[in-house]
Design brief:
- It contains 5 helices and no strands.
- It is mainly α and 208 residues long.
- 26% of the residues are buried.
């Protein structure tokens, strides 16, 4: 059996030192990337909540506008001012339409020129135009949420790599102080496989 001061043990210590150094640098990089992705996750989730609240506000505003348009529409129907029955009706009709939202006025004008089979405020054109801002904000909220989920997953992946590299530090540190060379080399070989596997895994991950 070789003495503890022999060249065999020197090689073990050199290999352990190299593994410890590389693994430490890799852990630092994994931790750095995990922190960056965590920041992006928080930012994306914050934007998602903000856009969700904005979508609710826009939806409520659209509902209010639709209710107001419908009230004026009832006035148009009951008064008949937009049917052209009296000389001054056209001016009154224009005034009522001007009080509506742009979407509502367009829906009324389209309805007046049609067969009037249904309410003008049930048309796809009116509903899409009125609720488009709310739908856009909702879509933006979902997009930011997806970005936050992706950032969270990337951060978790870097955390996993850092955990594996921590095991490398443990194996390499134990191998450097053991008196049995065969066990030391076995631990170093295992640590080397884990380290290169973790580094290869991180290379395939996106950078923040």
């Amino acid at each position: 059996m070789a003495s503890k001061d022999g060249p065999g043990y020197d090689m073990v210590e050199v290999a352990a030192t190299v593994l410890l150094g590389v693994a430490a640098v890799a852990i630092a990089w994994a931790t750095f990337q995990s922190g960056l992705w965590g920041g992006q996750q928080d930012e994306a989730y914050t934007e998602s909540v903000r856009e969700a609240n904005n979508a609710v506000d826009l939806l409520q505003a659209a509902d209010t506008i639709r209710t107001f348009d419908q009230s004026l529409f009832v006035e148009v129907l009951t008064s008949g001012v937009c049917d052209g029955g009296a000389p001054n009706d056209e001016a009154v009709c224009e005034q009522v339409l001007a009080s509506m939202s742009d979407e509502g006025a367009a829906a009324i004008e389209e309805w007046l020129g049609s067969e009037r089979a249904s309410s003008p405020f049930e048309s796809t054109t009116y509903l899409e135009a009125l609720y488009a801002p709310a739908e856009e904000a909702k879509a933006a909220s979902e997009r930011h949420f997806a970005e936050g989920a992706a950032a969270n997953e990337n951060g978790d992946n870097y955390d996993l790599a850092a955990t594996i590299l921590t095991v490398v530090l443990f194996f390499a540190g134990i191998a450097a102080v053991l008196g049995d060379r065969r066990v030391s080399w076995a631990l170093l070989a295992t640590a080397g496989v884990l380290m290169f596997g973790a580094i290869a895994y991180m290379i395939g991950l996106p950078w923040a």
